[in-house]
Amino acid sequence: MQNKQHFRPTKAIIDLQAIKQNICHLKEHLKPNVQIVAVVKANAYGHGDVEVARAAIEAGASMLAVATPEEALHIRKHFPTTDVLILGYSPSSFAEVAANENIILTVYSKDWVQQVCTQSNSSKPLKLHIKIDTGMGRIGVTSIETLMDLYNEINKSSNLVVDGIFTHFATADEEDDSYFNKQVTMFQQFIATLPKKPRIVHAANTATMLIKDPQLQFDAVRFGISMYGLAPSAYVKTKLPFPLQSAFSLETELIEVKQVEAGQSIGYGATFTATESSYIGTLPIGYADGLIRKFSGQHVLIDGKRVPIVGRICMDQCMILLPIAYNIGEKVTLIGKQKDEEITMDEWASKVDTINYEIPCIITSRVPRVYYTKQ
Ligand SMILES: *Cc1c(COP(=O)(O)O)cnc(C)c1O
């Protein structure tokens, strides 16, 4: 790995071996010839798109999925031959670049196809995956008539190829099956309508694969959150078919330790006041790093012990309450393990009333991602 030199001790440490391990476990549950699409949108859920994509390919993923044209181009620069699919919206003006770069686009509108035909001057084929909206209400065609209209429009142009068809589930991480089953039935009806099966039919996200309907693999599965070692929901976490290894740790070091007396306050607004003589440690991480002010009170690990963040979190720093006067430079783990203690992404998510997906995404780019691969 080419880890750059970083001076500030705050870093996210990404365990690429954990990512590979999670993919290898998933692979054992796949039928022969089912492709793994590694979902590396949003900078690989904040883990680093190129490094994660490389690890995923080494572990057996054969396709990469992103959300935007910019993400696709970034991936394409580093992976000249791997299939790359943009799951979300691409403007028709991007079609020419997509064809030249062999990037697969998601399509769901006949107007968009017509615009592409008038705008794109590429002589290369443009691969398209038709998106079916079976119940997410987000993007995708919602009726068989629209599907056939779109399909015929695409086939009018010799440069456009229906390479795939897919849908996305709204409730795959929940216990109740009824909405999910409705979506599956609808998707199967849509596929059956096509005169010719495209190369890749895909529907399953992580939760579908792990618990909801592990047999619903079609030609490819889209593996996102659990590739990073996180469960898609608390419900899925209780049903996991294999253990997940989380890949993301967040670490820093003590940069200052001071003793304060009872009555002395800490931070903006003086919202924390020591009730007895205490040690306060300062950490070089703040809300500009993604440690938003709502995390005040959250525990961090030092010397294998849990201690709380006290007072308001500043833009670049925050303060913690220490049991003893640790040395400057003592390692502090905000997410991850120390000795027998662990602070998980799930704990962070629940602290700020959200889902674990959101946490690595909100750790800003000021926090360098540092990679290691355990041998
Ligand atoms: C983000 C995304 C995924 C990945 O979902 P996970 O729950 O992380 O597996 C799959 N498909 C689509 C269309 C997505 O947008």
UniProtKB/TrEMBL annotation:
Q: Source organism's superkingdom?
A: Bacteria
Quote the catalytic residue positions: 41, 268
Against InterPro entries, the record matches this protein to: Ala_racemase (IPR000821), Ala_racemase/Decarboxylase_C (IPR009006), Ala_racemase_C (IPR011079), Ala_racemase_N (IPR001608), Ala_racemase_pyridoxalP-BS (IPR020622), PLP-binding_barrel (IPR029066)
Q: What is its EC number?
A: 5.1.1.1
User: Matching Pfam families, A to Z?
Assistant: Ala_racemase_C, Ala_racemase_N
Q: According to its UniProt record, which reaction does this protein catalyse?
A: L-alanine = D-alanine
Q: Does the keyword Heme apply?
A: no
Which cofactors, by name? pyridoxal 5'-phosphate
List the molecular function annotations (GO) for this entry: alanine racemase activity; pyridoxal phosphate binding
| GO BP, sorted A to Z | D-alanine biosynthetic process; peptidoglycan biosynthetic process
**Record-listed substrate binding positions:** 138, 315
Q: Which UniProt keywords apply?
A: Isomerase, Pyridoxal phosphate
Has UniProt tagged this entry with the keyword Metal-binding? no
Stretches assigned to the Alanine racemase C-terminal domain: 247-372
One CC-aspect GO term? cytosol
Protein family per UniProt: Belongs to the alanine racemase family.
Q: What does this protein do?
A: Catalyzes the interconversion of L-alanine and D-alanine. May also act on other amino acids.
- This chain belongs to the protein called Alanine racemase
Instruction: Please tell me the species this chain comes from.
Output: Lysinibacillus antri
